[in-house]
Amino acid sequence: MAEYRTTALIVAAGRGTRAGPGIPKQWRMLAGRTVLAHTLDAFRSMARIDDIVLVLHPQDMDMAAAYTAHGDVAVVSGGQTRAASVRAGLEALSDHPPARILIHDVARPCVSAELIDRVIDALDTNRAAAPALPIRDALWRGERDRVTGLHDRDGLFRAQTPQGFHFDAILSAHRARQGDAADDVGVARAAGLEVAIVAGDEDNLKITGPEDFARAEAILERRMSQIPDIRMGNGFDVHAFGPGNSVTLCGIAVPHSHGLTGHSDADVGLHAISDAIYGALAEGDIGQHFPPSDDRWKGADSVVFLDHARDLAAARGFAIRHVDLTLICEQPKIGPHAAAMRARVAECLGLDMGRVSVKATTSERLGFTGRGEGIAALATATLVGA
User: Fold this and answer.
1) Which of 259, 262, 328, 358 has the maximal Cβ count within 10 Å?
2) What is the set of domains in the chain, with CATH numbers?
3) What is the pLDDT of residue 3?
4) Which annotated residues bind a divalent metal cation (predicted)?
5) What number is the average pLDDT over the span 118-122?
6) Which of 83, 85, 122, 116 is nearest to 102 (CA)?
7) Are the C-beta atoms of residues 37 and 58 closer than 8 Å to each other?
């Protein structure tokens, strides 16, 4: 009985001789990683793909351990033909079969999540489905560098992968197949399976010749340039208790038996948040921008530091999207003032309160905070590039 899961079978057992001299194309570098790594990650990043079978050439099986280290990847030794390699992968799954399987050529590293989704969706109502692009160019027959005839392009498509199937159907089709096949749709059709066509993707090119590497790299780099630059920074600060009758935390005066000592107003919360923003920008910390040796900052309102960090982020093209602050102390109690602190930080940063978190914890009476000697703060800031 097939378990209701979806498996991806990636065929990477070919030698890729048309790609030019050198190592097989799946092991060549593309945008800083191997072709195989790009293809594998395209499926591993999909929540709808439960596991992966990777079919390698027998001579490449010494690299299997690097892939089986991932709990969702199994490696199988391939055969002498593509069909034999696919059959080996299918048979490896036969004792614990999935409901659906997507068979993909390793040489298509630019496959998109949207395309994979379309194939999976089509299997809800079809036993087989595959992506394809309609042929829009005129088709000629030729011989000896001369046009010898024309061919009607109506109803013709360029086949792509992944090609998806109900597992039992494609396994039976491969077991009945004699000899090689161009792809798994050919195997399925020979067994009488009807195959649904889903929309393909021009970016889903197959690396065949040497010139295809440059095209694939351009596609991957274009996609990377469209991903927002997301930064996270951490900030940590401590201040000791000293004379006074209140402490300033996140711009809010909180009554207490002591104050906090420091060169500025010793607002440990705003200091930690400011340092988190500086950290996300790789711009050091408060001390570099506002040296404690400079008397201009003696007793300064720490909102000045937070404003500077915010404006620096904006100048660098980043928006602050979220701040999370933890205050660590035995006293004073933070809970009654947390909402006011969140509101003040949100106001300074131009954020909704839903994007600002202020919470507190104790250190279980351990360390300097546990002994009531001061307050510590830990902050994380998330920035997104424009």
Assistant:
1) 358
2) 3-226 (3.90.550.10), 230-385 (3.30.1330.50)
3) 67
4) 237, 239, 271
5) 98
6) 116
7) no
* pLDDT score of 1 more than 60: no
- In whole angstroms, give the CA distance from residue 160 to residue 105: 9
Binding residues for a divalent metal cation: 237, 239, 271
Q: Which among 358, 250, 376 has a CA at the least distance from the CA of 306? A: 250
> Residue 116 pLDDT > 80, yes or no?
yes
Residue 10 one-letter amino acid: I
Record the pTM: 0.70
Contact present, 107 and 124 (Cβ < 8 Å): no
Residue with tokens 């915010």: 310
Cα pseudo-dihedral 257, 262, 265, 270, rounded to 10: -100
For residues 328 and 251, what is the distance between their CA atoms, to the nearest angstrom? 17
Tokens 């793909």 belong to: 49
Q: What is the C-alpha to C-alpha distance for residues 348 and 252, in angstroms, rounded to an integer?
A: 13
Count CA atoms within 13 Å of residue 297 on its CB side: 18
| Signed CA dihedral, 346, 305, 308, 276: sign only | negative
What is the per-residue DSSP string for 98-112?
Answer: EEEEEEEETT-TT--
Amino acid at site 197: I
Binding site, residues? 237-239, 263-264, 271, 285-287, 361-364, 368, 371
For residue 99 the two structure tokens come to 């409901």
Do residues 179 and 161 touch, judged by C-beta distance below 8 A? no
pLDDT at 303: 95
The length of the chain, given as a count of residues: 386
- Strands (DSSP E) found in 91-207: 98-105, 128-134, 139-143, 146-151, 157-159, 163-166, 196-199
